[in-house]
Amino acid sequence: MTLYILCFILFCVGLYGVLRKRNLVKIIIGLGIIEYSMNLFFVLLGYRLQGRAPIDAQHQDILNMVDPLPQAVVLTSIVIGLGITALVISIAIRIYEKYGTFDITKIRRLKG
Amino acid sequence: MANIVPFFTIIPLFTAFAISLLGRIFKNAFIHTLSIVSQFILLVLSLLSSVLLHRFVDGKILVYKIGGWIPPFGICMVLDGLSSFMLVTVNLLAFFVAIYSLNYMNKYTDKPKFFTLFFLMLTGMNGVIVTGDLFNLYVFLEIASIAGYALVAFGTEAEELEASFKYAVMGSVASAFIFIGIAFLYGFVSTLNMADMARILGTKTNQWVLPFVSALFFMGFGLKAALVPFHAWLPDAHPSAPASISAMLSGVLIKALGIYALARILFNIFGILPVYSKILMFLGALSMLVAVVLALSQWDLKRLLAYHSISQIGYIALGIGLGTPLGILGGLYHLFNHSIFKSLLFLNSGAIDYAINSRDLKDMSGLRERMPITYHTNLIASMSIAGIPPFNGFFSKLIIIIACIQSGYITYAIAAVVGSLLTLASFMKVQKFAFLGELKEKYRDAKEVPLAMQLSMVVLSIICITGGLLLLPSLRYFLDNAVNVLLDGSNYANRVLETALK
Amino acid sequence: MNIKNQDSYTETGMTLIVKTVTRLTVGLILVYGIYIVLHGHLSPGGGFAGGVIIALSFVHLMLAFGRDIALRKVSKNTVSILESIGALMFLSIAIAGFLGGVFFLNILDKGSPFRLFSAGTIPLSNIAIGLKVGVGLFAIFLTLVILEGSKR
Does the ipTM exceed 0.90? Predict the structure, then answer.
């Protein structure tokens, strides 16, 4: 249970970064933290007490495996996170080129 | 027959990478041919699937088992009435937008990249619609969203980058909510297959997790659909994209990713409860009124249209949220109609932009003489969106309002009428400032847009006029099959699992 | 050996120590990545993890020697072509399943477990994914570097 609460705290830290920080790079870091917290949460869901890695190896009988499905799912989610981070970073670099700043309070050419 | 289902994702995915691989070597003609041909095949396939499903398939459902794995062990693709309805809407629009882009995208530099991203977005949308697995839905949703973020920033001007950044951040947070919702559901039912999920949820008596998960899904998909408290990104993102992409984003992306996914999950997995439908209706009515009031004061043409998208999404959410057969019919019918006339309006704004290089309503006037095709198609689309009788928008709004009165929600019915009147007012403003009045001296030599752009605008306006025919008894199966899927509720599980095991 | 005329690229990149170590290790990293890709169906790893390691070996090269030298080895055009090929390869493996009647069907002989040549199309898919990820991740890095460089 403690681990789930820690996950939730991590999520809140990320959300705080996205919502409250003014620097574009810090917002991106916030997004990354949200990404990690949700991946961590999903992997934790599949954990069983004393469970071992779900790898079928030769000459070995593993009776107590953790749930392999969340791990596959989280791997996909990590890839998606990588894609989003790369895209957002390149957009941020281009924004810096155009505006000369990373401060979102100064990047305000769109109204409303 | 189920073999056609995976092709809705295979064809656009293949086209996307073929264009990115070969587009550099061959000239534009190759890219044009490839994209139009594959888009045409998709359109034919989706129309065919709709007809075949109605005529020849028992139970009106097709289940495709990827890799031969039986659900819930493998991923399955499901084509039922609702999916085929959405597929026709998406692919019909994408076909005309692709034709329009052939000429329009000459304004921008990198055509292969544009079509690659366009087809990736289409892959994502088609995938969201046909998939039968909740996590697979998330993956396709992300493919469509990421392509969308990149396409909004396609012009790489300062405003576009800013809008795209805003959109990407909001969209990622929305995706995070959806992912956590999926994680909670998985922890509760230990499966990711949508049909199996519905079956197991039906057997559990204590569904403590559902209110929490549905709140997460309302936030996530509501953000993707731009319902009002979560709408802040849309008026920036949609106008900043190239006009053809604005048409796709406003026309189908927010509906396939937001409304369709939300309706599928709420109705078919959770089995709609009165409290969800009340929330959906409240959000719908709120978006309907707030956005249209905000739209009235806009002077940027595309921004005005973007606010109207939020308002019209409100009508769709209100109709579907009612949960009665008539309400769902009205909501889905409005979804189809809105995707046609809103994209036509965006294509018109793109045509004006193409001809005179301006989006400011104060700046343009009297374009009626110089651009007759754009003017007439815009008039038709404006009357459709405002709900003037012979056009398609009238029928769907009427059905929604009647359904509201029938279920006893008089306030929402009045709100819908008021919203419609305000829509009419703001489109009269567009007509007055853009097309009527004196032609300005500097636009004396403005020319009508090229043929391909005219063609797609004219065809879309014909669909606007004839859209009312979908209510005829012989064509109504197209809508009725979709409505029946939603009305069926959690029975979806039995239908999918039985068909899969056959 | 004289440092100055040893290579034209002594001015760019990091110090001599880093360059020498990089020259020694970069091949090992690349081979390790390829090993992870090829053994994906037997041990932890697979296309994505191996692809990331392959990409990191090129990134390593670029960090040590500077952008121009790395670009001389792998140009931006090659990268984007290889990336599309990787994607199309994976898709065609999936479509090849139609030979057996179903999309994504594993049509090849599965062999006996824990052998290198087993599991049908899974190793082939791993290679396709490894190519796509390795080249794609390097392309992302390359784009960011070029973007950063064009500003100065």
Answer: yes
CA distance B314 to A87: 31
Domain count, chain A: 1
Q: How far is CA B154 from CA B70, B252, B343, B440, C151, in A?
A: 41, 19, 19, 31, 19
Check whether the bond before B72 is cis (ω within 30° of 0): yes
B146 interaction partners in chain A (CB closer than 8 Å): 80, 83-84, 87
Whole-angstrom Cα Rg for chain A: 19
Q: Does C95 touch chain B (CB under 8 A)?
A: yes
In a domain, C2, yes or no: no
pTM reported for the whole predicted model: 0.93
Q: Decide if C44 is inside a domain.
A: yes
* Contact between chains at B183 and A15 (C-beta distance less than 8 A): no
* Chain C residues touching residue A53 (CB < 8 angstroms): 44
Whether A19 is in a domain gets the answer yes
Among B14, B20, B68, select the one facing C91 at the smallest CB separation: B14
- Residue pair A105/A83 in contact by the 8 Å Cβ criterion: no
Q: Residue B434's pLDDT band (boundaries 50, 70, 90)? A: confident
| C contacts of A89 (beta carbons < 8 Å) | 144
Given CB atoms, is C115 within the 8 Å cutoff of chain A?
no
Confidence of residue C149 (pLDDT cuts 50, 70, 90): low
Comparing CA positions, the residue from B370, B336, B354 lying closest to residue B439 is B370
CA distance B145 to B249: 10
B149–A42 CB contact, under 8 Å: no
Domain extent at residue C53: 8-151
**What average pLDDT does this structure show over C4-10?**
46
Residue C3 lies in a domain: no
Q: Does residue C140 belong to the interface with chain A, where contact is any CB pair within 8 Å?
A: yes
Name the residue among C44, C137, C147 with its Cβ closest to that of A55.
C44
Question: B324, B333, B468: which is closest to B403 by C-alpha?
Answer: B324
What pLDDT score was predicted for residue B474? 84
C58-80 per-position pLDDT tens digit: 888 888 887 777 777 777 788 88
Q: Please provide residue B300's backbone torsions phi and psi, each rounded to the nearest 5 degrees.
A: -80, 125
Q: Chains meeting A at 3+ CB pairs closer than 8 A? A: B, C
Asked if residue B248 lies in contact with residue B121, where contact means CB atoms within 8 angstroms, the answer is yes
Enumerate chain A positions whose Cβ falls within 8 A of a Cβ in B: 11, 15, 18, 24, 27, 31, 34-35, 38, 41-42, 45, 69-70, 73, 76-77, 80, 83-84, 87-88, 91-92, 94-95, 98-99, 107, 109-110, 112
In a mutagenesis test of the C interface, which of B3, B13, B17 is the best target, namely the one with the most C β-carbons within 10 Å?
B17
B350-378 residue pLDDT tens = 888 888 888 888 877 777 888 888 888 99
From the list C80, C91, C104, the residue facing B13 with the nearest CB is C91
Whole-angstrom distance, CA of residue A23 vs CA of residue A29: 10
Model pLDDT, residue B120: 92
- Domain hosting residue A31, numbered range: 2-45+65-99
C-alpha span between B370 and B91 (Å, rounded): 32
pLDDT in tens, B387-432: 888 888 899 999 999 999 999 899 999 999 999 999 999 998 888 8
| B158-189 and B209-225 helices, crossing angle to 10° | 160
Question: Residue B25's closest chain C neighbor by CA?
Answer: C81
Of C84, C97, C101, which is closest to B21 when you measure between CB atoms?
Answer: C84
Domain ranges of chain B: 279-471
Compute chain B's Rg from CA coordinates.
Answer: 22
- Domain CATH for A20: 1.10.287.3510
**What would the pLDDT profile of C93-106 be if each residue is shown by its tens digit?**
888 888 877 888 77
Choice between A51 and B42, residue whose per-residue pLDDT is larger: B42
